[in-house]
Design brief:
The chain has 399 residues and is mainly α. It is built from twelve helices and five strands. It has a five-stranded mixed sheet, sandwiched between helices.
Length: 399
């Protein structure tokens, strides 16, 4: 059999080679390991596959896709049909632990409310306690949620321009995870810090800084993290625990003010009687604390245990975002925050729980670490950067 002429050299003929198998189709050569990392599998029902990158985004020596284009992991669009999950929400171990650790505060508040109700309504004291128990449902009432978002969390509705940026990303994130995105409301916080929050039952907020400075992929990763707090039950369990703890906290605030008032009187003419009153009150409190030592121990240890559970909830929310394909982008955000804190030499401590500031009632996510002492680390609501990146590592390694 004569070999066909070589098209590159008319005078030559190519040596005969083995015929191609009819069922074999030549496949493209595998990508260079330094270019991209194989993406995680798509969410069931999704037709979009997401690329992944290493911790820092672009690999070393990679010049990027060129102007006007995105890295593979920056493509957060969704194509194809959206398959909604049958269970839109659940409650994981972290959320259940939050509820259990809030139980002592709840019981203390119940005793206070019952005592005040009995004092004000001797014949119907049970009615006040019953109404207070039922008031927890108001935390998931949409108008009440909006009032909490506006007045306690200092959030506002997004402008049309802000909404045009947020809505497509939110639709992509919820479609990717099989969640009905219309069940949630997007809000904005006028802040110059990188932060986000999942509050009440249906509130998802981001700061203006995050909206202006983050890329589409990074902002989608932040939204996916906050969605994880909602669908895993962290937001509503934290809200409910704080809601029912309000009477106990108010009573504690009153006791502290009275103690300060008595101490201030001690510097005046009634110093002797004030000292006696303070001694008697302190002795009574000490005797009650010793008698019910198990309750006292629980109340003292609860803040540390609750902070540990909240840190675990942050890792769970990171896992939710990474499992949906946003792990590399979330790692980029964590690296950005770590670099910003290191360069500025400042520590941003939020007043919350989560990705750590629980403003009012919610699970806020500032993506920041805390350079405090041992006590501060034990009470921190967020893990440090290295811990979070360690848990994200399986989603960032080459497969």
């Amino acid at each position: 059999m004569t070999a066909p002429p070589d098209p590159a050299h008319p005078g030559r003929t190519s040596p005969p080679g083995p015929p191609a198998h009819p069922a074999v189709v030549a496949s493209p050569s595998p990508p260079c390991p330094n270019e991209t990392i194989p993406p995680p599998p798509p969410y069931p029902g999704s037709t979009t596959r997401y690329g992944a990158a290493r911790h820092g985004g672009r690999p070393k020596g990679h010049s990027g896709p060129g102007p006007g284009k995105r890295e593979p992991h920056e493509d957060v669009g969704h194509r194809g049909r959206v398959h909604l999950a049958k269970r839109q929400r659940s409650i994981d171990g972290a959320a259940m632990a939050q509820l259990l650790l809030q139980l002592p505060s709840f019981l203390a508040s119940l005793v206070i409310v019952a005592a005040l109700s009995q004092l004000l309504l001797p014949d119907m004291g049970w009615l006040g306690a019953l109404l207070w128990l039922a008031s927890g449902a108001m935390a998931f009432h949409r108008p009440t949620e909006r009032a909490l978002a506006r007045h306690l969390l200092n959030l506002r509705h997004p402008t049309p321009r802000e909404l045009s940026r947020l809505e497509p990303l939110w639709r992509a994130v919820t479609a990717r995870t099989g969640v009905e995105g219309l069940a949630y409301e997007l809000w904005i916080e006028d802040s110059d810090h990188l932060n986000a929050l999942a509050a009440a039952g249906h509130i998802v907020g981001v700061t203006r800084f995050s909206l202006e400075r983050l890329s589409d992929g990074q902002l989608a990763a932040v939204l996916a993290h906050e969605l994880g707090h909602h669908v895993r039950g962290h937001a509503w369990s934290s809200l409910l625990g704080q809601w029912y703890a309000v009477p106990g906290r108010l009573a504690w605030a009153v006791v502290r003010r009275l103690t300060r008032f008595v101490a201030a009187i001690g510097h005046g003419r009634m110093g002797f009687w004030a000292a006696v009153l303070l001694l008697v009150a302190g002795t009574a409190v000490l005797l009650v604390a010793l008698e019910y030592w198990f309750v006292t121990l629980t109340l003292v240890a609860a803040p540390y245990l609750l902070a540990a559970v909240t840190r675990r909830a942050e890792v769970r929310a990171d896992h939710h975002a990474a499992a949906a394909g946003f792990g590399p982008m979330l790692a980029e955000v964590l690296h950005m925050m770590q670099a910003a804190d290191r360069d500025s030499g400042s520590v941003t401590a939020s007043a919350l729980s989560g990705c750590g500031h629980t403003a009012a009632m919610g699970t806020r996510t500032p993506f920041r670490g805390r350079g405090q002492g041992l006590l501060g680390r034990l009470l921190s609501s967020h893990p440090d950067y290295h811990t979070r990146l360690h848990h994200l590592a399986p989603y960032l390694k080459q497969r």
